[in-house]
C-alpha cells in the first residue's frame, strides 16, 4: 500500500495519474496547503522540503519518497511500467521528465504567481515567465511533430508534463499555433487515468477560494 500525501495541484495530479495508470493500491492523505499542513512536523519527517506530493511505500519498509519526478521514477520502476526498457528510450523519457521538472513546472509556477496570485502586478515579471512558458511549449510542439509521445511510447514524461500544460490558460500562456502540442493534449485527456487523476483529491473550493489560499501562501 502506498500512502499518498497530496493536494489539488499539477504536481499532485502527476502522481495520482501514475498511481491510477499503474494500478498500484494507494491511500490518499490530503493536505490543506492554506492551513500549512505541509509544514507540520509529521509531514516534514516524510518530506523535509515541506512540499507536496510525497509518498510512503508501506510495502517497502515505510520508505518515503518526495519530489514529484523522483516519485514517478520510483513508482514506474516498482511496477515495471511507464518507463521504456530500452536504455536509449529510457534516457529519453528521463530527459523529458527533467525538462518538465526543471523548466515547464517552475516557469509556469512563477507565471501563476505573478499573473494570478501576487498582490502587486509586476508586468515585467509576468511577461518574463509567460514568454518563457510559451518558449518551452514551442520546444514541446516541435518535438511532438515527430513523436506521438515525448519518449515515443507513453511514459512518466507525458504524465509529468500534461497536468501543467493543461492549465496554460491559468498561467496566461497561449497554445495557439501549436498543433502538435494540442494533438498530444487531446490524446492525454482521453486516458481514463488522466481523467481520474485530476480529481484526486476531490476539490470543493471555488476558484475564488483557490486564489485567496494562494495569495495567503505567497505573502507568508
Automatic annotation (TrEMBL):
<dbReference type="InterPro" id="IPR036249">
    <property type="entry name" value="Thioredoxin-like_sf"/>
</dbReference>
<dbReference type="InterPro" id="IPR004045">
    <property type="entry name" value="Glutathione_S-Trfase_N"/>
</dbReference>
<feature type="domain" description="GST C-terminal">
    <location>
        <begin position="86"/>
        <end position="208"/>
    </location>
</feature>
<dbReference type="InterPro" id="IPR004046">
    <property type="entry name" value="GST_C"/>
</dbReference>
<protein>
    <submittedName>
        <fullName>Glutathione S-transferase N-terminal domain-containing protein</fullName>
    </submittedName>
</protein>
<dbReference type="InterPro" id="IPR036282">
    <property type="entry name" value="Glutathione-S-Trfase_C_sf"/>
</dbReference>
<dbReference type="InterPro" id="IPR040079">
    <property type="entry name" value="Glutathione_S-Trfase"/>
</dbReference>
<comment type="similarity">
    <text>Belongs to the GST superfamily.</text>
</comment>
<dbReference type="Pfam" id="PF00043">
    <property type="entry name" value="GST_C"/>
</dbReference>
<dbReference type="Pfam" id="PF02798">
    <property type="entry name" value="GST_N"/>
</dbReference>
<feature type="domain" description="GST N-terminal">
    <location>
        <begin position="1"/>
        <end position="83"/>
    </location>
</feature>
<dbReference type="InterPro" id="IPR010987">
    <property type="entry name" value="Glutathione-S-Trfase_C-like"/>
</dbReference>
Amino acid at each position: 500500500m502506498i500512502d499518498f500525501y497530496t493536494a489539488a495541484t499539477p504536481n499532485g495530479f502527476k502522481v495520482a495519474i501514475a498511481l491510477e495508470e499503474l494500478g498500484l493500491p494507494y491511500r490518499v492523505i490530503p493536505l490543506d496547503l492554506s492551513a500549512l499542513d505541509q509544514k507540520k512536523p509529521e509531514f516534514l519527517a516524510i518530506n523535509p522540503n515541506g512540499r507536496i506530493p510525497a509518498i510512503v511505500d508501506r510495502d517497502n519498509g515505510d520508505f518515503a519518497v518526495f519530489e514529484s519526478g523522483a516519485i514517478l521514477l520510483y513508482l514506474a520502476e516498482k511496477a515495471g511500467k511507464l518507463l521504456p526498457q530500452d536504455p536509449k528510450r529510457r534516457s529519453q523519457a528521463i530527459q523529458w521528465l527533467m525538462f518538465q521538472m526543471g523548466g515547464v513546472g517552475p516557469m509556469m509556477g512563477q507565471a501563476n504567481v505573478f499573473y494570478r496570485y501576487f498582490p502587486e502586478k509586476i508586468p515585467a515579471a509576468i511577461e518574463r515567465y509567460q514568454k518563457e512558458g510559451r518558449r518551452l511549449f514551442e520546444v514541446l510542439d516541435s518535438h511532438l511533430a515527430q513523436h506521438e509521445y515525448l519518449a515515443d511510447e507513453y511514459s512518466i514524461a507525458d504524465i509529468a508534463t500534461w497536468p501543467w500544460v493543461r492549465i496554460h490558460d491559468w498561467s496566461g500562456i497561449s497554445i495557439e499555433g501549436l498543433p502538435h502540442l494540442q494533438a498530444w493534449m487531446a490524446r492525454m485527456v482521453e486516458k481514463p487515468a488522466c481523467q481520474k487523476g485530476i480529481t484526486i483529491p476531490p476539490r470543493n473550493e471555488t476558484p475564488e477560494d483557490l486564489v485567496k489560499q494562494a495569495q495567503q501562501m505567497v505573502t507568508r
